[in-house]
Write a sequence for this structure.
């Protein structure tokens, strides 16, 4: 969907699809018997091979650290005004320049990063939990519960995301918590659908029948059998939701409906800078680049995770 | 099939109703159409009463909703809460403008996306493929409004400066030159170009990836191998067997995206000041004008629902394995 | 079919004459994988004559399917390569042909039936159209004529109500019916060689028998040669004239069917035969298993590839590769150092063998 806030987390679509290999594929024939290695170790190994994902992981950790310690690293406060230096370009005193009120862009970028990352992670985690629980319940128990859930998701998905968020912003205060709550309330739907679908199909598989036959309780079946098989997909989805959340929040703030000033977020920094961009391009370049870099890393990370956690993929290179 | 369509239509109605109730409630509770009037000292209490009565604001919440609903389904959408302009006229004009922008960007994205995707799949792991993948990654990660701003800077400022142009090649704001009358194609196109590019780039990234993934799956499928085993010409194999199957998921996704065009251009229109549905929505939400906002939401939802249905029908038409009970 | 060929290389297609239809010599095929180069087929040779059924037997991963795909030129170009050998169809080496020449032969003179008919047929095209398409690709006939011929073929393979069913899609057919459709497609142009890759593996036992009968019937009618790839020895016994056993990419035994079942000379073959239930033998208490697994094809052993799992293994097995050698009967060859040893059979214990080999200075 347009505006980058569509229902499909972007990078879900980015990974090359599995190629059915004509080569002998039994692990023995390939000499890849890896006795005694746990799933986790195997997954980690596969992940390590994805160079870009590894690099992204490192970079993201760096970004996270820098923003967490913003109060230590930032030379100035985010609303500290230096009226003698308004609208000055990058310099030794103000690394990334200042805005109309003389606020230091570098510091604002750091604090803004904190906001964006918090929102991204907060939304991804809460919508991830919500979506998984709802989707699992719908898929597992089926029947009326499933019907209700499907109707609700239909409703949520029928209205463009941005529209819902803008309407919802009328009752929110513009603080981080509000934004996280609102975004989570609507971003759980794609994951719920996916988990529901997975549970529905897994439920019919023989190994579940077998588990039932030996008397496993519903709870045991869900947690011991169904969840582990869907965990990979869930993790990938949650990761990619971080990217979506960051993009959505910045768009919302840019349009004036998200994080309200004086709290800086990369999105509202862009809105501030927009009117002046012909004079003070740095106000636009840096926050935007920050978003791009972070989201790009998250997407690469998601791609790497998918490679690591989706065992059905095999890539054969000439 | 017919029963399927009817059933879907029937399910959609409660959906629309629920949405309308929710939106109405939020808007009603957070908007005061008389706010502007209150500060005016020359309005007497009686005038205020009358005004409120005219707008139907003296009724209870639910009563107001049903009054609105009744009028809405009859096509009487009334006028804005704050001005006298007809709601339907405003929405209609905005819709047309959005469609022009939307369909243009969409068409470019679809054509280019499918082409790029097919080539990338057929030449997997080549330089072209690598570039296409990287491009898609970046296009999907870049904040759309930032990309739009950059384009505005580029075309509106830098290119003009560097190439000493009297005017930007593509205009950075609006749909027409301010003050112009009538319809001049070139001028319109020069205004359409940038927002269409921004829209196209977003969709292009998705379509090229979808097509590539779909095409790869098909290229490695057993039936493609059978087609080759039959000794068919390679072109026939790729087009008649490969693409015919690979296009199915993209066609349905494209139909769904078309449905989303009515309400999905908010950011692009805001930045380029394109007078479409998105810009309209942002404006009325600033005021809280729910006389316009409500029909707006209904209309965009209807678009989405209808095109989702179209997508499902298309899917059944294209893939004989899908047949709806 | 007697209609004129459409290929630009129509002249390149030889006239059916002589007996040997396909002669594969020294074929080697490799795959590039993330783990390295896999030697899927290692210097395999065999030939098939008109009208005969050659069964190619072996476990998964032994290279039988790759061999078939190599013959037809259906290997994925990016990840595989034929590194040696020749594949002669009626004397002409397919590997040295122009791709268009190959295409003219593929589907026309040499055809293939695949294992899973559900995925092997295009789900969005009607069955009749898929058959007709093949006819039109190689012959100068009208669409109507091709369709008519398609219906004829469907009848031939035993599909009832063929006129109607030709308009159906693949998923409207049961597994057995689908396989019949695949066979109809494969024989559409009267090929001289039909390669059937595990045609019955995905089917019920009762349906298996039917499909095999269709294949034999077709062979009767058209005199085509059939290469039947399978891991099911029961199927082989009922249908094959000659059998070739493959293991870890190599041909390790070949004989006519009676000899192979009656007097096999390779321990792997013994294992294969011993691990199936047979009606003509007393009931076993346990099915014999061959312990272990095939060697990795990334770095195949230089000596006997079966050595690690062979109960009769001797030191020479790990040092020298046992080239194929004739064993008594004409046309019976086996790749074992002891194949031509007097009294070589499963009843000889490994201990006896050691003693025997030690006796010889």
């Amino acid at each position: 969907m347009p505006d980058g806030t569509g229902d499909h987390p972007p990078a879900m679509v980015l990974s090359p699809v599995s190629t059915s290999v004509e080569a002998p594929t039994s692990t023995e024939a390939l000499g890849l018997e890896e006795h005694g290695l746990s799933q986790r170790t195997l997954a980690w190994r596969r992940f390590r091979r994805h160079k870009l994902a590894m690099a992204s992981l490192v970079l993201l950790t760096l970004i996270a650290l820098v923003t967490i310690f913003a109060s230590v690293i930032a030379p100035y406060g985010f609303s500290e005004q230096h009226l003698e230096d308004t609208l000055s370009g990058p310099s030794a005193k103000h690394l990334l320049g200042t805005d109309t009120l003389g606020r230091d862009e570098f510091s604002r970028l750091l604090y803004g990063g904190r906001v964006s990352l918090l929102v991204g992670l907060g939304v991804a985690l809460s919508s991830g939990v919500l979506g998984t629980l709802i989707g699992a319940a719908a898929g597992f128990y089926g029947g009326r519960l499933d019907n209700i859930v499907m109707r609700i998701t239909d409703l949520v998905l029928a209205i463009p995301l941005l529209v819902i968020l803008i309407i919802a912003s009328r009752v929110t205060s513009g603080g981080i918590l509000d934004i996280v709550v609102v975004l989570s309330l609507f971003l759980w739907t794609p994951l719920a659908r996916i988990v529901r679908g997975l549970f529905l199909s897994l439920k019919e598989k023989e190994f579940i029948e077998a588990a039932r036959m030996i008397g496993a309780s519903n709870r045991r079946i869900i947690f011991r059998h169904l969840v582990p098989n869907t965990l990979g997909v869930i993790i990938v989805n949650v990761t990619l939701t971080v990217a979506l959340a960051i993009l959505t929040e910045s768009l919302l703030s840019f349009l004036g409906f998200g994080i309200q000033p004086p709290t800086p977020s990369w999105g509202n920094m862009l809105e501030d800078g927009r009117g002046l961009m012909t004079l003070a391009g740095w106000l636009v370049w840096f926050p935007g680049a920050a978003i791009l870099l972070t989201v790009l890393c998250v997407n690469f990370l998601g791609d790497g995770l998918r490679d690591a956690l989706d065992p059905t993929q095999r890539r054969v290179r000439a | 099939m017919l029963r399927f369509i009817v059933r879907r239509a029937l399910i959609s109605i409660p959906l629309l109703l629920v949405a309308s109730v929710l939106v109405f409630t939020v808007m009603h509770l957070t908007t005061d159409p008389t706010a502007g009037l209150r500060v005016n000292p020359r309005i007497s209490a009686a005038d205020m009463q009358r005004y409120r009565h005219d707008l139907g604001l003296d009724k209870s919440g639910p009563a107001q909703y049903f009054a609105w609903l009744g009028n809405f389904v009859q096509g009487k959408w009334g006028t804005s809460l704050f001005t006298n302009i007809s709601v339907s006229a405003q929405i209609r004009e905005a819709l047309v403008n959005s469609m022009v922008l939307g369909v243009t960007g969409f068409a470019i994205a679809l054509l280019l996306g499918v082409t790029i995707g097919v080539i990338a799949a057929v030449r997997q792991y080549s330089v072209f493929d690598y570039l296409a993948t990287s491009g898609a990654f970046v296009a999907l990660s870049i904040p759309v409004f930032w990309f739009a701003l950059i384009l505005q800077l580029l075309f509106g400022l830098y290119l003009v400066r560097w190439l000493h142009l009297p005017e930007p090649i593509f205009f950075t704001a609006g749909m027409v030159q301010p003050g112009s009358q009538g319809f001049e194609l070139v001028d319109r196109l020069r205004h359409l170009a940038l927002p269409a590019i921004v829209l196209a780039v977003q969709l292009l990234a998705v379509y090229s990836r979808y097509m590539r993934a779909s095409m790869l799956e098909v290229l490695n499928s057993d039936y493609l191998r059978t087609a080759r085993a039959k000794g068919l010409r390679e072109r026939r194999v790729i087009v008649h067997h490969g693409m015919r199957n690979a296009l199915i998921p993209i066609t349905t996704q494209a139909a769904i995206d078309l449905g989303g065009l009515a309400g999905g251009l908010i950011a692009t229109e805001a930045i380029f000041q394109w007078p479409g549905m998105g810009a309209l929505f942002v404006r009325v939400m600033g005021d809280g004008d729910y006389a316009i906002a409500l029909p707006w939401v209904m209309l965009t939802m209807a678009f989405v629902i209808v095109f989702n249905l179209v997508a499902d029908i298309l899917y059944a038409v294209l893939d004989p394995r899908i047949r709806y009970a | 079919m007697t209609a004129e060929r459409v290929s630009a290389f129509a002249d390149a297609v030889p006239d059916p004459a002589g007996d040997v239809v396909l002669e594969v010599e020294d074929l080697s095929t490799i795959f590039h994988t993330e783990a390295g180069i896999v030697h899927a087929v290692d210097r395999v040779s065999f030939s098939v004559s008109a009208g005969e059924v050659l069964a190619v037997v072996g476990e998964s991963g032994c290279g039988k399917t790759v061999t078939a795909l190599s013959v037809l030129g259906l290997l994925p170009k990016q990840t595989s390569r034929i590194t040696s050998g020749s594949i002669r169809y009626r004397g002409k080496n397919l590997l040295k042909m122009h791709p268009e020449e190959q295409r003219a032969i593929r589907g026309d003179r040499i055809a293939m039936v695949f294992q899973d008919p559900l995925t092997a047929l295009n789900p969005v095209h009607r069955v009749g159209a898929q058959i007709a398409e093949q006819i039109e690709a190689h012959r100068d006939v009208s669409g109507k004529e091709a369709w008519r011929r398609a219906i004829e073929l469907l009848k031939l393979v035993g599909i009832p109500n063929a006129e109607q069913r030709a308009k159906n899609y693949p998923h409207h057919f049961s597994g057995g019916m689908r396989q019949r459709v695949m066979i109809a497609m494969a024989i559409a142009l009267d090929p001289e060689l039909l390669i059937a890759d595990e045609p019955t593996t995905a089917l019920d036992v009762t349906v298996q028998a039917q499909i095999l009968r269709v294949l034999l019937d077709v062979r009767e009618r058209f005199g085509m040669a059939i290469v039947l790839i399978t891991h099911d020895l029961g199927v082989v016994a009922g249908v094959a004239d000659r059998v070739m056993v493959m293991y870890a990419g190599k041909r390790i035994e070949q004989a006519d069917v009676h000899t192979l079942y009656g007097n096999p000379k390779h321990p792997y073959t013994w294992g294969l035969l011993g691990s199936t239930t047979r009606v003509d033998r007393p009931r076993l208490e346990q099915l014999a298993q061959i312990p272990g697994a095939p060697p990795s094809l990334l770095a195949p052993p230089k000596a006997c590839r079966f050595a690690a799992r062979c109960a009769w293994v001797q030191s020479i097995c790990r040092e020298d590769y046992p080239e194929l050698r004739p064993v008594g009967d004409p046309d019976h060859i086996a790749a074992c150092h002891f194949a031509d040893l007097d009294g070589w059979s499963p009843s000889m214990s490994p201990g006896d063998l050691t003693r025997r080999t030690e006796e010889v200075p």
Q: What stands out?
A: The radius of gyration of chain A is 23 Å. Residues 1-36, 313-318 of chain A have pLDDT under 50 and may be disordered. Chain A is about 65% helix and 0% strand. Residues 105-141 of chain A form the longest helix (37 residues).
